[in-house]
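Readers outside the structure-tokenisation community will struggle with the description of the input data as it stands. Showing the layout once, in full, would remove most of the difficulty. For illustration, here is how one protein appears when written out as sequence plus structure tokens:
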Amino acid sequence: MQPTELWLTPLILLPGVALLIVSTAARFGQLQDEVHHLLDHPERHADIISRQLVRRSRFYRDAMIGLYASVVLFTLGSLFGGVINEWLPDLLRVVGGLTIAGIAAVVFASISLLRVSMLSLQVIREHTANIEQKQTADV
């Protein structure tokens, strides 16, 4: 790999991370709307729902931390890469290290998003069960 390719690689990864940030931030905003809805319209199972919302919000927070950390690491990798390539080409492994750390942060964020997806499925199942209980009680 050419030195220029090495320090440009983190920049190439940034648009994908940016898309993850935008979608995760939007979903986190929706989660906040769910909390406000729950406050305005308390339900019979509000305590259970609120605990699940808190768990989901922690996963989203962790994902956002990982994604923002990857942006910092990728940006520093490219910045240092440009400087190092010009004056200290023997230290280009620093760029590789920052890139690997940035990729690890994206993996961490992705795992957090997987966890929130699984928890969301659990929430949907519980809501469905509550609806079914309500329907059978009304009959």
In short: The radius of gyration is 21 Å. Residues 38 and 47 are 10 Å apart (CA to CA).
